[in-house]
Write a structure and sequence with these properties.
By secondary structure, the chain is an all-alpha fold. The chain has one domain: Alpha Horseshoe (Serine Threonine Protein Phosphatase 5, Tetratricopeptide repeat), CATH 1.25.40. It is 80% helix and 0% strand. It contains 6 helices and no strands. The longest helix is centred in the C-terminal third of the chain and has 17 residues. The chain is globular.
């Protein structure tokens, strides 16, 4: 059974598991299915804005597909969320990516 099928099977018993949903989005990216990954990251962050790790990956995806404006917005939202959560490591990663894109 491939990784996507295993993750989807686990999600059947716990569909709100953000860790599994995040992992599934990363698998979609590996397969080049950016549209599916984007929808999943957006759903995760809409339902749980404190799931800090998804901000970086969503913004990077948007940056890669050329949606710079949206990428900047997600980096900014991620930095706010990381700061509120006192997650300095994530804040620094988001800030570095943001600065690479905007400067």
């Amino acid at each position: 059974m491939n990784r996507i099928a295993r993750i989807q099977e686990m999600l059947q018993s716990n569909p709100a598991d953000q860790f599994l949903r995040h992992a599934l989005a990363l698998e979609w990216i590996k397969l080049g299915n950016d549209a599916e990954a984007k929808l999943l990251f957006e759903a995760i962050l809409t339902e749980d804005p404190n799931y800090i790790g998804s901000y970086y990956h969503l913004a990077k995806l948007l940056e890669r597909i050329g949606d710079t404006t949206a990428a900047i917005q997600w980096y900014e939202k991620g930095m706010e969320a990381a700061k509120a959560a006192k997650d300095q490591h994530s804040y620094n990663e988001l800030q570095s990516a943001y600065e690479d894109l905007t400067y």
